[in-house]
Amino acid sequence: MREIVLLFYLLILGLFDWRERKVPLILPVGGLVVALLYQIYLLYHDPAEWEWLLVSALLGIVPGLLMLTVAGLTGKAGYGDGLVLLSMGLLTDYKSCILLLCFSMLLMSAFSIGMLLLKRVGKDTRLPYLPFLTAVYAVGMVVSR
Hints:
The protein is mainly alpha-helical. It has helices spanning 2-20, 26-45, 50-60, 62-73, 79-91, 94-117, 130-144.
């Protein structure tokens, strides 16, 4: 059930990002609050596993922190992208979050190269990130079943 809710959330964010090239900040912030509450629930529900849950959460937020750093230092990424990745790191295991980041960037790169070769975009064209993250998450759901 968690995967379906997360996919629906990503679909909404991806549509906003694709159409507007930005996401209302309340949506990623709200997702991050829900993810933090979920982590607190997990800690409360299974206190014997608190060490593993804490380590997994800390490792899971690394991709989001990297994206937020890129957004802050270069402006080449959006803060919403970083916040969504932070949420994903808290809601999935850290390996999945790292794979999501890598494969979504790979998919976005392949799309960019194709669009450049077709002369549909220029080298300075900004692409939305969240639709690619959503696509990789959806494919990952199908493949893992």
